[in-house]
Amino acid sequence: VAVACKRVRALVASAPLAGNTGTLGSSNASGDEQKKLDVLANDVFVAEISSCGRAGIIVTEEEDTPIAVESVGGEYIVTFDPIDGSSNIDACVTTGSIFGVYSPGECRVDDTDTVESAVEKCLVNTRQSGEQLVAAGYCMFSSSCVFMLTTGQGVYQFDFDPDVGEFVMSKERVMVPDGDKMQRIYSGNNGNVNLWAPELKAYVSYLQAGGKDGGKPFSYRYIGALIGDAHRTLLYGGLWLYPPDANAKEGKARLLYEVAPIAFIFEQAGGLATHGPLADKRVMEVVPQHIHQKHPMFVGSKSMVEDLQRFLKQA
Question: Where are the beta strands (DSSP E) in the chain?
Fold first, then answer.
């Protein structure tokens, strides 16, 4: 994954001069318009993960079905969005790559299985909840290239050092700021607030009025790329609202390779990642019904998610 991130970082940096900006005129498995770098980054990730010797199945946003990897000892299910926020690429705004590594589970195929039934068994094997993640992270391409990683023992930050061509650990045991250390920030697509549930619209007004302590109003920050907004929330604290709306009942981010990995990272950093009308259900417990299923999420500092829960319960 780290090697793939290095290669994609170079592709993103050189995209304007190499003519790799703009769209291809095609759509991915989720119906999103594909940028040129979507396809290039996907090819890089598939090649690197396929050759690592530890992956048995690959699930990527850019492919309709899982990819079986022929390798000795390959067993893990590796999922990824090779370029998150690709709509930002042409404007040189923050983008990144998200990945999740799931435990292998079992995909038993009998001699009596048809091709269709065998494929279905293996597809079911890839549809796992976030609780089956053994590693997750993201690589953010911005003013610097940052690699965030958890293997279930805390969150670690690595920064790319171009002088040596390697990711170097810069922070260990990263924790989401809370209490007095937390910045008063909320995030979400403000253009869609009128499409949100009335109680969530009221919560935004509540934050703008200073929240539970009636103090300084919460500042609004929104990049429009999942990784960028998640990374700022992870380092500064606050709350990121990604609810369903009237036009997107399931949200827009994909559960298997975007939402669950981000939830895993935040829980490992002491934050919370929830969903539901009362924001009281763990994202990590949701089992996807199909590999490209979308899902909403509320994520951030523990106290902020709990404050949202309290507000919704009283609404």
Answer: 23-27, 33-35, 55-60, 67-68, 76-84, 95-102, 133-141, 145-150, 155-161, 166-171, 185-187, 219-220, 239-242, 272-275, 281-282, 297-300
Q: Has this prediction a pTM greater than 0.85?
A: yes
Residue 299 makes CB contacts below 8 A (sequence gap 6+) with: 230, 233, 239, 240, 242, 262, 263, 266, 271, 272, 273, 274, 283, 305
Instruction: Count CB-CB contacts under 10 A for residue 189.
Output: 16
Distance CA 82, CA 41 (A): 5
Q: Are strands 219-220 and 239-242 parallel, antiparallel or unpaired?
A: unpaired
Which residues, 6+ apart, have CB-to-CB distance to 207 below 8 Å? 186, 217, 218, 239
**Confidence band for 294, pLDDT divided at 50, 70 and 90:** very high
Residues 99-137 pLDDT 10s? 999 998 666 666 777 766 665 666 667 889 999 999 999
Alpha helices in 193-272, H assignment, sequence order: 198-208, 226-236, 260-268
Q: In what order do the strands lie in the sheet with 133-141?
A: 67-68, 55-60, 76-84, 95-102, 133-141, 145-150, 155-161, 166-171
For residue 278, what are the contacts with CB-CB under 8 A and spacing of at least 6?
309, 312, 313
* Rounded percentage of the chain residues whose pLDDT exceeds 70: 91
Contact residues for 110 (Cβ-Cβ < 8 A; gap 6+): none
Q: Which residues of 130-147 are buried (b: 16+ CB within 10 A; e: fewer)?
A: bebbebbbbbbbbeebbb
Could you tell me which of 250, 283, 279, 277 has the C-alpha nearest to residue 265? Answer: 283
Rounded Cα gap, residues 104 and 278, in angstroms: 33
- What's at 111, amino acid-wise? D
- Which segments of 19-114 does DSSP mark as H helices, in order? 36-50
Give the pairing of strands 185-187 and 239-242: parallel
Q: How many Å apart are CA 305 and CA 279, to the nearest integer?
A: 8
Q: How far apart are CA 270 and CA 268, in angstroms?
A: 6
